Amino acid sequence: MRGVGVIEFGGPEVLQVVELPEVHAGAGEVRIRVHAATVNPTDTGLRSGGRAATMQDISPPYIPGMDAAGVIDEIGVDTKTDLAIGDAVMAMVIPRASHGGYRESIVLHSDAVVRAPANASHAEAATLPMNGLTARQSLDQLSLQRGQTIAVTGAAGCYGGYVVQLAKADGLTVIADASTDDESLVKDLGADIVVPRGDDISAQILKVKPDGVDGLADGALQMDLAVGAIRDGGGFASVRGWDGNGERGIVFHKTMVFNDDRRADLLDKLRQQADEGIVTLRVAGTYTPEEAADAHRQLEAGGTRGRGVIVF
Q: Which of 16, 156, 167, 216 has the fewest CB atoms within 10 Å, i.e. the most exposed one?
């Protein structure tokens, strides 16, 4: 069985196709024949050694990948699930050692796996789990009420785009940033007001919301540049664990989905919203396993709209 991983950490060139032992589903588990694995920033961090400290007791190859989509081809004995062999499914994966999404076959707990959106390709389905769950967690942490206002930085990106769309579905008013080239995209995603992207993001948001927004989801990692746009006592959701400075009673939330991999209930809700057209599945490009390094280079170069996907 093929996978894409690293033996030694480094740049995109260290990614290689590796042979992995076959795996089988045990009790409470299903096996997915993986057809698509999304390339995310967390994958480039693993590849470059950003998580090396957590791998010291583990032998390579290290297989990245937090998203997988494909078809169930094995169900473990005594596994209670409404899924069946042949179902098209998707899941979020927590990588450890060779257990990552970049592999032709993976075994997961059945409560981590849900059906894929009905009309989505495997590549499209693979873009939803991790980024969609991250966006959902940020919104749940901010706990804004219908009619309140959220600002979203990095709105043209995958996480930011899902925040915009899910926030609109929650009945929020959305102020989002965009470059000139991305303005129409962000409007199409549902933003009520689009402001110019840049280091003056707080000033730009305050121009249209002088009393400050109720919450902000920081997909662009602008942190202290963006926090000034939030009203006193509002909320800030950080995907990089930023604690802020405790200013003005703002509550800082760390959005991390590593504990949400077995939340099939949340992921299935996202599946339903994809079926309803509430969230949009955006594939920036597809790559063979041998082209995985190119996928990482493209992501690290910036400017991708959607996600690159490795197809098996």
A: 16
